[in-house]
Amino acid sequence: MRSILVPKLKTLLVLSILIFLCNLVLKSVFIASIPPILTNDEAYYATEAQAIIASGSDVSGTWHPWQLAPANPLYSELTGTLYIPGFLLFPHHTQIAMKVVPILFGSLLPIVLGLIVYKFFKRKVFFVTTALIATCNPWIFQFSRMSFDSFPGIFFYFLGIVGILYLKGWKVLLACIPFFLGFYQYQGYKPLLVPLVLLTVVCVMWKENGGDLRRSLMKYVPHLMLLGVCCALVGIYSIRLPHLLSSSRIGEFAINTAALGQTVTTNRRVSFANPFTLFFENKPFTLINELKRRFVASFDLAWLFEHRNDTVDTFAVTAFGFLYEIDFLLILYVISQLPLQKNWRLLLCFFGGLIVFGTLANVLKDEQLWLTFRGGFTIIGFVLVASIGFGLILQLKKKFVSLALIGCYALFVGSFFYQYFFRYPLLATKDFFFYNRVVANYIERQPNRPIVIFTQTPKILFDDILAYNHLITQQTLPALHIAYQQQKFGLNMIQLQEGCFDPRLVATESGTTVLVDYRVSPCPSSNPLATASAKPV
């Protein structure tokens, strides 16, 4: 048996190294200029990473990574800390420094996903097809070249799942490490930890015991302990939540009782008087309808396969969805072939459960539906299913069909790469993210000139200026601590002001450059036409 396994392991190792190197090259090409921007989130984590290197705290001086709490309710706990290695390698190039860790994770993720599918099929063709499809997937490829908090969370969770699938005995507890790191990344993935671990543990017990979960239960004590550790992690976080800054976002959950009560009251007011109102218009019924609506919306075919949401995905290629249209056909093929597989119930349980549980981040959030981040696990689940379909077709060993499929898939991938490398760098400059980079570059070229900036978003712009121009040092941190604590953003000769623009305030300051955000309007008192129109007629 050992003589059979060793060649297989060597083959997988060689394939993994080749796939990793291909990913590393592909995802590093033009990384200094594509994407041409840092978004708000990326700039925030860049300043956090630089500040931790310089002082061990964030830019305000009031937060430390070991607190396992977010410094800002909009962001995660450990993502900034995770990006520190990039700044140690490239301290003077923020664009590259912020992409080091995502590129590494993005190069490893196809291998991790390939190992998951290989565990269920035990054939190299499924490992290869999964790794290659994950390499070329639009969602994975783009997030491998950006430094958001959702992608590390997904990588660590799937790495933990691989640990559960492959590690034996007490070694399975090593999976606690990636699950712990993943839990303190993207806020929206915290509710997914226990369901994903439970799903994987149950499938491991099922796979190894022929569906009889009661058999040899003692053998899986380490797995149950791992599940208990994950439950404890979520429980401790829930206890701490009321005392964390992120508690301000509790009202965003769809199960918010106050919001439900208001919805029920409104619905009752716009209904004719009838004996069924109390039965159909109540909090439980309203909650079920809302959760059902959001669950169904998580599978919006237009967003998944055609185009992204142009209003919020301004940082990405929106001409493509998260998956290729050909992936949809592969998924349908898997559905048609699933009953023919010996372990079809196990496959349905694991991969179907992965997709369904992946919707929780969307279903539980009472906001505009945003699949880009919250639907990440569902997207990866579809990638895995499409990869299985690709492998099943290649297993038919029909040369014409296989070549036609590979050719069609190559056309989709080529079209996406064309959009990404030749159109996206230009189209991405139309948004205010690029505007902030231009402002930061102008300031860097005027080091001795006083500059006053009027903007609607002083903190966001200040984060960008600090990140792009590498202004966070041990010498500047005392002044930055005061600026962030007092919310009066400025450093040395740079001052940012929020609100309308009054040119008379700076007209007397000779030598001062005044920059006005294109979204900022003149103050009514400084605009004769506005003042005249404000007078009563």
TrEMBL record:
The keyword Transmembrane applies. The lineage of its organism: Bacteria, Candidatus Cerribacteria. It comes from the Bacteria. The keyword Magnesium does not apply. This is Glycosyltransferase RgtA/B/C/D-like domain-containing protein. Keywords: Membrane, Transmembrane, Transmembrane helix. The chain crosses the membrane at residues 12-34, 96-118, 125-142, 154-180, 220-239, 315-338, 344-364, 376-394, 400-421.
